[in-house]
Amino acid sequence: MIIGTSDTWMRYDLGPAWRAAFAFLANLSPDAATGRHPVPCNDTPEGSVYVEVGRYDTKPEGSGRLEAHRRHIDIQYVLSGMEWMDWTPLAGLGALGPYAEDRDVRFFSVTERPCTRVLLQPGAFAALFPEDAHMPGIAVPGGPAAMVKAVAKVRVDALAVAGILARGLDG
């Protein structure tokens, strides 16, 4: 996992797809249209990068589940609101059903293993790789709140980094 802000993402240059995702995110505002937005990137195959903009209310602690992705990294970028996101290494987690190929997601049970908690607020991002189990959307103290968040989905094979593999989702 990489955690940063809108003015530090370039320290982790993972190639053209990474740069295209952040260029797109930089131009979004909280009134961006909900749904999927294709992100053009001349140096990668079509469809290698897209952004999902979502609107939702954060959920009470203890009501979520961990998730991980095999083919994409998530770059979660808050446009409006504030939430906690829990993170833990994927290895050793108990799966809650099979991998959903069509949505590139598998869910995992929360274990007795403690998670690392990250505060996501406007201008902050968390980049999550296939080995990163994560649970976004947890309400901060004060109760559920409205969120607008963009999640850039970047194909792992479009990143300019050797050795980023989809591991552990079959466990």
List the keywords.
disordered C terminus; Jelly Rolls; mainly beta; 171 residues; six-stranded antiparallel sheet
How do the strands and helices of this protein lay out in sequence?
Layout: E1 2-5, H1 16-26, E2 35-38, E3 49-57, E4 66-68, E5 72-80, E6 83-89, E7 106-108, E8 116-120, E9 124-128, E10 132-138, E11 146-155
Antiparallel strand pairs: 1-9, 2-3, 3-11, 4-7, 5-9, 5-11, 6-8, 6-10
Largest sheet: 6 strands, antiparallel
CATH architecture label name: Sandwich
The backbone outline, from C-alpha atoms, is globular
Low-confidence stretches are 166-171
Helical percent range? under 10%
Structural classification:
mainly beta
Strand order of the largest sheet: 1-9-5-11-3-2
| CATH homologous superfamily placement | YhcH/YjgK/YiaL
Total count of helical runs of at least 4 residues: 1
CATH class: Mainly Beta
Q: Count the E strands.
A: 11
Domain count? 1
Strand content: 35-45%
Radius of gyration: 15 Å
Overall average pLDDT: 91
Order of helices and strands: EHEEEEEEEEEE
Distance between the termini: 20 Å
- Remind me, CATH topology? Jelly Rolls
Characterization of this structure:
The protein has one helix and eleven strands. The strands form three sheets. The protein has a six-stranded antiparallel beta sheet, with helices on one face. The chain has a three-stranded antiparallel beta sheet with strand order 8-6-10, with no helix packed on it. A two-stranded antiparallel sheet has the order 4-7. The chain has a single domain, classed as YhcH/YjgK/YiaL (Jelly Rolls, Sandwich), CATH 2.60.120.370. The chain is globular, with a radius of gyration of 15 Å. The chain is mainly beta.
